[in-house]
């Protein structure tokens, strides 16, 4: 048995040797019998020296054909043998090239076949490319990875995410285009044209908003995180003060409304039709000679949503008003008391009784708060589901990379997909905020206060600008732009603590003193250096990770180095960093007193010249103040914002279009940036495909970056979902505590007990 096995192994060895000898002899025989290069390489048959039939600078170049020209220029047949010419652009021996061609790895147009060695490298000087193959190569429908994969897989989903990002205005689609009267024949004739034009308007509006989201994502993210930080701190403040019985019922409800309405314009232009509303609310139903409602000392904006928030919580106030629609948070001393420093507890104001009507008003307030929160879009439906499909595209592209290692088009599609992660990040941040995007929710809550039904067209002054760019929501209230939401929420919180920062003295009759609770609210919502560091770090994280992943993938797509695509990512990121600095300049406010040089402090030189408020444009429209520091700061700020915004649009939308069209598929983009200023330098351009370096980079960088992108985006989406679910739960708990006697302040409880005892 052992002898038989030994004989069989010897026979197999003889067969193997015979096969190798036959192949070697065939190769040697072929090398002596070639009459032309096309005998060995059929791809070189009928080759001419005109690689394109059209204008190469209009996309008619063909770099696969250029590769064939380079191979043809590197070889010649002498006495039946294929030998190298000088110069030779093939970085392998002739025998290796012949072997690769027989194995289906001819360098021009080679694809992955499972062999990690890949195809031979064909590398030509950049000067050769400029002379022989100038211009760029238009993307073809035959190669899905060139344009279809990034367009359908990443760009279209990004548009879906853009539509979930709140905005203030949109391109108007005129109602006349919908031809309401179809009883006439002319209407049926015009209807198709109206439909087409309306569709064009919607497409243009989507492209414009997509461009805006790509142009200003960093200030949008920064403002969103700022608002989220304020929401978190206000809710923590309410929790702490409720547990320690420090706030009145109406103040807790007021701050909850601030959280939900803080993205609306705080001080819109007053409307004449709303003035009677203020006059109606000046009637005080609970006046008392001992603790009177004071007359109005300030003028309220009748059209401000803050005024209507005050109206909603007014029926559940604990004490009478210190001003119109501004209830006291602490008891007033008896006005009839003549003692200057009286400490008699009987002279302290008694809280308003909670009769059945007040209890019903408390129930209405709780219902309004719950309804406003519940009317917001579901995070899972608007953000979570699109994220799943976006991640599916990533996974598909990664699988494509694994099944087609060395395909640079696939790696670039993956790089642009990682870059587009910025848009899902924007939608995630906008989706985790508690303030609703649609102001009609708040308008519906206060609708019973408006006696007359108004034409929605009167909500703003009509002129050319408002006719072209109409309000995104047909409401009397206007939401702030995404990059201004954080500042808007800050203004609402500031309005709350400034309105109630002074209170009557608790112990004796005397002047008003600082309210400790409002001082605490001011402190907790005024970001310190640490707070700003957290907000900016989160912004840079969501901006930086897509950039780093996209840059690494493009950088390690041979030619390895910084070239057109990776440079696009760099320039775009620089524009976003400067936009963050501009946002901080305009909206971060003054530095903390005493922490910096006097030049930067309040009432310092920069503060006096309007340096910290560069977005105020009032000085630009006055002849007296045009030539001033305030005007100069405004001009500088808006000029820089415009320049960086245009730069963001050009690099994002322009870079995307150039990649999809194939403009980046050119000789100039195949060399590193450092060689652009050295046109005569002999740097190399690789024309072949599926070579060893591409395969190694695909395994080492492309795949790793793709997997990291999937994990990071999934983690960010999950954290956003968890955060907003937690914050909504805390908000509902605070709403449920409204009206609960156990959460009342101690002085209110004591007064209620005394009142009930009587």
Automatic annotation (TrEMBL):
Signal peptide: 1-25
Keyword Transmembrane helix: yes
Keyword terms, alphabetized: Membrane, Signal, Transmembrane, Transmembrane helix
Organism domain of life: Eukaryota
Membrane-traversing stretches: 147-165, 186-212, 374-399, 411-435, 532-557, 569-590, 632-653, 701-723
Residues forming coiled coils: none
Name used for this protein in its record: Uncharacterized protein
Originating species: Hyaloscypha variabilis (strain UAMH 11265 / GT02V1 / F) (Meliniomyces variabilis)
């Amino acid at each position: 048995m052992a002898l038989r096995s030994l004989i069989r192994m010897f026979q197999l060895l003889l067969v193997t040797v015979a096969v190798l000898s036959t192949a070697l002899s065939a190769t040697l025989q072929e090398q002596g019998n070639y009459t032309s290069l096309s005998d060995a390489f059929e791809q070189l048959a009928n080759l001419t020296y005109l690689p394109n039939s059209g204008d190469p600078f209009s996309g008619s170049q063909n770099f696969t054909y250029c590769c064939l020209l380079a191979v043809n220029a590197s070889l010649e047949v002498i006495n039946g043998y294929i030998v190298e010419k000088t110069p030779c652009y093939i970085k392998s021996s002739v025998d290796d090239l012949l072997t690769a061609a027989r194995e289906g790895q001819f360098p021009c147009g080679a694809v992955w076949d499972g062999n990690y060695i890949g195809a031979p490298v064909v590398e030509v000087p950049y000067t050769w490319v400029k002379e022989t193959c100038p211009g760029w190569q238009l993307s073809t429908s035959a190669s899905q990875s060139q344009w279809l994969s990034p367009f359908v897989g990443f760009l279209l989903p990004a548009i879906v995410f853009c539509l979930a990002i709140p905005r203030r205005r949109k391109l108007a689609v005129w109602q006349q285009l919908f031809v309401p009267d179809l009883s006439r024949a002319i209407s049926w004739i015009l209807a198709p044209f109206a439909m087409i034009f309306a569709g064009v308007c919607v497409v243009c509006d989507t492209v414009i908003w997509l461009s805006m989201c790509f142009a200003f994502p960093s200030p949008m993210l920064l403002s969103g995180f700022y608002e989220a930080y304020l929401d978190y701190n206000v809710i923590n403040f309410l929790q702490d003060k409720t547990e320690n019985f420090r706030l009145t019922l109406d103040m807790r409800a007021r701050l909850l409304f601030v959280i939900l309405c803080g993205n609306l314009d705080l001080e819109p232009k007053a409307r004449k039709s709303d003035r009677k509303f203020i006059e109606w609310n000046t009637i005080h139903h609970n006046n008392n000679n001992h603790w009177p409602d004071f007359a109005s000392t300030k003028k309220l904006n009748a059209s401000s949503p803050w005024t209507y928030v005050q109206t909603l919580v007014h029926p559940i106030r604990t004490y009478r008003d210190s001003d119109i629609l501004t209830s006291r948070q602490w008891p007033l001393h008896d006005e009839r008391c003549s003692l200057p420093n009286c400490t008699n507890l009987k002279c302290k104001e008694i809280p308003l009784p909670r009769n059945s009507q007040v209890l019903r008003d408390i129930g209405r307030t709780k219902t309004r708060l719950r309804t406003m929160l519940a009317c917001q879009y579901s995070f899972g439906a608007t953000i979570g589901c699109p994220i799943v499909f976006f991640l599916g595209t990533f996974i598909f592209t990664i699988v494509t990379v694994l099944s087609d290692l060395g395909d640079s088009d696939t790696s670039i599609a993956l790089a642009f997909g990682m870059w587009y992660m910025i848009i899902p990040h924007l939608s995630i941040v906008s989706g985790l905020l508690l303030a609703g995007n649609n102001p009609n929710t708040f308008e519906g809550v206060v609708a019973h206060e408006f006696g007359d039904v108004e034409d929605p067209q009167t909500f703003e002054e009509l002129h050319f600008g408002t006719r072209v760019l109409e309000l995104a929501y047909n409401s009397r209230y206007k939401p702030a732009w995404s990059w201004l939401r954080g500042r808007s929420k800050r203004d609402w919180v500031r309005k709350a603590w400034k309105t109630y920062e002074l209170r009557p003295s608790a112990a004796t009759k005397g002047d008003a003193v600082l309210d400790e609770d409002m001082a605490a609210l001011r402190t907790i919502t005024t970001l310190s250096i640490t707070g700003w560091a957290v907000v900016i770090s989160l912004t840079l994280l969501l901006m930086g990770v897509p950039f780093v992943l996209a840059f690494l993938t493009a950088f390690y797509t041979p030619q390895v180095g910084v070239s057109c695509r990776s440079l696009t990512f760099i320039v775009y990121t620089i524009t976003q960093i400067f936009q963050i600095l501009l946002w901080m300049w305009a909206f971060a406010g003054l530095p903390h007193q005493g922490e910096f040089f006097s030049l930067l402090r309040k009432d310092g030189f920069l503060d006096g010249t309007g340096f910290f408020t560069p977005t105020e444009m009032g000085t630009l429209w006055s002849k007296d103040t045009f030539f001033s520091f305030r005007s100069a700061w405004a001009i500088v700020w808006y000029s820089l914002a415009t320049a960086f915004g245009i730069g963001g649009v050009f690099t994002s939308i322009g870079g995307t279009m150039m990649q999809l069209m194939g403009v980046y598929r050119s000789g100039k983009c195949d060399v590193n940036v450092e060689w652009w200023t050295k046109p005569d330098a002999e740097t190399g351009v690789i024309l072949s495909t599926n070579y060893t370096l591409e395969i190694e980079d695909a395994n080492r960088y492309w795949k790793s970056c793709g997997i990291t992108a999937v994990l990071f985006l999934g983690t960010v989406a999950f954290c956003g979902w968890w955060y907003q679910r937690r914050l909504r739960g805390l908000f509902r708990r605070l709403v449920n505590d409204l009206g609960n006697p156990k959460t009342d302040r101690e002085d209110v409880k004591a007064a209620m007990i005394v009142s009930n005892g009587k």
